[in-house]
Amino acid sequence: MTERPPKIALFVTCLVDLMRPSVGFAAMRLLERAGAEVVVPKKQTCCGQPAYNSGDEADARAIAQQVIDVFEGYDTVVVPSGSCGGMIKEHYPKLFADDPAWKTRAQTLAARTQELTQYLAENLDLNDVSATVNGTVTYHDSCAGMRELGIKDQPRKLLATVDGLELKEMDDTESCCGFGGLFSIKYPDVSGAIVDKKADNVEAQKTDMLSGGDLGCLMNVAGKLKRRGSNVRVYHIAEILAGMTDQPGVGDAET
Amino acid sequence: MTHEPHCQDFLKASEKALKDDQLQELLNRTLKSGFQKKRLMSMARLPEYDQLRDQARDVKNHILDHLDAYLERFELQVKKAGGHVHWAQDAEQAREIILKICQNAGAKTVTKGKSMIAEEIDLNDYLQDAGLVPIETDLGEYIIQLREELPSHIIAPAFHLSKTQVAETFKEHHTHLDPDRDMVEPTSLLKEARKELREKFIQADVGITGANFLIAETGTAMIVTNEGNGDLTQSLPRVHIALSSIEKVVPTLEDATLFLRLLARTATGQEQSVYNTFFTGPKRDGDLDGPEEFHMVLLDNRRTELLGSEFRDILRCIRCGACINHCPVYGVTSGHAYGWVYPGPMGSVLTPHFVGIKEAHLLPSACTMCGRCGEVCPVRIPLPDLLRNWRGHAFNAGKPGGLQRMGLKVWAWLAKRPTLYHAITPIKIWGMKLLAGKRGRFKSMIGAGGWTKTRDLPAPQGGTFQSRRQKGER
Predict the structure, then answer these.
(1) Rounded-to-integer distance, Cα A212 and Cα A235, Å
(2) Mutate which of A39, A185, A219, A228 to disrupt the B interface (most B C-beta within 10 Å)?
(3) Which A positions 80-139 lie with beta carbon below 8 A of chain B?
(4) Per DSSP, what are the bridge partners of residue B214?
């Protein structure tokens, strides 16, 4: 009997869905390359982070329940975002601390959820050079992915499989870019000053590209780089791994 | 700046800090190549560092579970050693107790070692109003006392000032000295402060210090300093008052050493602070020095309320300042922007408790949730969770209000209705895409003014992932 391919549900994340669908298509290609059967449940919307981090627990719980409902029954749920992955894995169980039935369901989903680079690093053949991207790249470690999910080596291992690509590490790669979801809108000057430092570190490496695993952070840094007139192109790591850097980067004009 | 909270001014105050190039330079240098780097180096020299953090967290939790018992034991041992113990419910009581001890001692001049608790209860102004002359002896505290400012950091109170500003302050206040004296070198500032303070040390009738740890088994109060000013404050005057909040108690001397191994390393990257001073009761017969009277003031100031709340973990804090040193927001705003005594992540947890969430609601949300504060905390306080708890209280109290709240509510309403969500969002996104044209980003946009004030807003690619996939795109 041949083993059936793992059935993976892709949590697209609202930012990817709305702002940069190519990250979703890249993720699908990569997951399929890893031998999975990919499903994208239609009833998904958002993971509830905006409500949760704004102290609106009731809405955060309601949205989490919806996500738990939609994503139950798959072998694995993959998320191309450290912060949304962290939300499901770390925070959903906390949201239902006083509700044993939902807590169990939240824990089950948490146990089956993986951030994209985590899943790929474990399941892609890292000796198989399937993508070619000529140029240099620097990588920003997004906070939630790194601190809540332990993502650090996985993206680097994956980037090393890309033919023609050289990774140049920037200073303070682990420091926050100042995005913080609604923080970036609520405290624009403070957020702007923090992302200025990140943009300094990116530009100091003189790379062609910046990459990362969280579209929110990338939109923030790209927005700052573009405002400063920088030519560094910004891509989600999924886009680089899928060889999709012939399209405009985040915030780039179409040619 | 006074001790009255100004937390509602966070936006204005942070803007001011951001425009202060000198402050930005100080923050960059002192935090990154100073505190952060030194902490990493000292951690590397202590392989069991993380294991000690677990142990420290567990010991602190055990103490909080048995706080009453350890405090009673501490009280008993202080009395046995010949000291007096005073329990203060709140700031008012603590101030009254301290003033009374000073008055009984016929005190005029009071020297003070650095104490955040004294800042918390605004002790100096109170003593001054009663006709006493309190003099801060920690160099940083001395400087901000002259300038009538609050500390901008819990371990480096004058962190926000350059040596030029310090020189100006000294020239303004030390008017009996030659106005043309050379004050370029930091050592000349240090020497001048030392000379000024030496006289005060000898004049003082009462010395007031804080305490880093209270050791229950021996009735010992303990402080760490790098300047030795705590020792002189404690041992030279006739009367020594130690002021501490109740959660500083630890069971044994050995427990205190566990925390000492973590405290300086995490705070400044030192193996140990230069001075570790243990004081147990007043001078005994035959002792060469030490105070004739020792008074221990134990302050609750609503900490027992914290003990029974979802903020209990903050009581593990050993005031090392690591969370402050690593916070990206503090790193560009500095301490005064937070508008009260305690800045940074630990401050944004404590301040709402002391001044109320309505006053302080901006602080827990002035945080990117990057999690670094929790990562560096030597006693593993889950600071991001505690900050989020406060956001919950703020939300329930109607903060944020107005457009922000409405925007959030609309988003949540839509997120809970997937069919509607997927019907509406592609249309909105195509609209945005059309607006952006081929530019790929917005320089400004209605409704996104906050974002586009400091950076461009990347435009959407067009269509949603879900709608494009529906049409067969792969």
Answers:
(1) 7
(2) A185
(3) 94
(4) B221, B249
The partner residues of B460 in beta bridges, in order of sequence, read none
Helix (H) or strand (E) holding B109: strand B109-112
| For residue A153, pLDDT beyond 90 | yes
Could you tell me which of B435, B429, B416 has the C-alpha nearest to residue B468? B429
Nearest to B319 by CA among B210, B216, B221, B162: B210
Determine phi and psi for A211, rounding to 5 degrees: -135, 170
B429: nearest CA in chain A? A18
pLDDT band, residue A3 (cuts 50/70/90):
confident
Q: How many CB pairs under 8 A join A and B?
A: 220
Nearest alpha-carbon partner for B374 in B323, B310, B317: B323
Q: Could you report the predicted ipTM of this complex, rounded to two decimals?
A: 0.97
Quick check: A191 and B454 CB within 8 A? yes
Q: Which of A89, A191, A195, A218 to mutate to test the interface with B (most CBs of B within 10 A)?
A: A191
Is the CB of residue A213 less than 8 Å from the CB of residue A148? Answer: no
pLDDT of residue B446: 82
The per-residue pLDDT of chain A, averaged, comes to 97
Mean pLDDT of A90-117: 98
Hey, is the C-beta of A194 within 8 angstroms of any chain B C-beta?
Answer: yes
pLDDT at B445: 87
Buried b (16+ CB within 10 A) or exposed e, A215-254: bbbbbbbbbbbbbeebebbbbbbbbbbbebbeebbbbbee
**Closest C-alpha to A233, from A250, A216, A218, A247:** A250
Identity at A127, one-letter amino acid code: N
Q: What H or E segment, with its residue span, contains residue A112? A: helix A100-112
pLDDT for B2: 60
pLDDT at A113 > cutoff 70: yes
Q: Which residues of chain B have pLDDT under 70?
A: 1-2
Residue pair A225/A252 in contact by the 8 Å Cβ criterion? no
pLDDT of amino acid B144: 96
For residue B226, give both structure tokens.
Answer: 């790098």
Residue pLDDT, tens place only, B403-413: 999 999 999 99
